[in-house]
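Hi there,

I know you've been waiting on this one. I reran it after we fixed the sequence typo, so this is the corrected version. Both the input and the resulting structure follow.
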Amino acid sequence: MWTPSALASELHPARGTCWRAVEDQHNSASRRLTDSLAEQDVLEDILEESKPVVPALCRHLHYLLQTPFRYAAPPGGSRFRAAGDGRGVFYAATGVAAALAEIAFWRLLFFLASETRVTPRNVAVLTVFSVDYRSDRCLDLTAPPLEADGALWTAPADYDATQALADAARGVECDLLRYRSVRDPDGGRNVAILACTAFAQRQPRIQQTWRLWIEPDGADARRAVGDEPPLVFPRAHFARDPRLAGVA
């Protein structure tokens, strides 16, 4: 496994734009629970107080950028965070298609792995947004020599190696990782921002609304406004993941 000293020699500057897809935000949902905008504001304040504190280095950022640094990793962990790890990671992609492939996979897995295995009849409304990043201490897992261990970095469900790498990377103050998307059928690139200091701006640059449909045989996404062709993600594209491959 890569040691901190070995990783330190591979750090280099990087800059670019990344995209992230999230479920449409909650304001409209909380409005349905109240009788007026004033009541909604009170409810939102109460909800805000119940959430974990935003880290000090992230407080100047838009909430879409803050959120991944606010919550600990889920019980199953994630690619660069062990379960319960409170150090945030902003997962994104260098293109819209790769960002949507990620959320399409996770929503498909969620419904097909449930007891009923029933996919939703309603469409999911997504906010897809971009933000610029700038780092002096980036590790590129898609370039030599780190790409030699590409099979470890792109394992569909085994995160032991990537979590160990992230720990070592943080030890040398790396704040950005570039890696190959595991979900994008076209092999797009993803980025993992490990520290809020890697954001080059305080707010998203572009926001788009997309609609995502989930079916047992896959997913498709369409932009709400615009003439872009739909993005189709057949279930077969995700077949490498044993969690999905094992679902009938």
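Quick highlight: The radius of gyration is 19 Å.

Best,
R. S.
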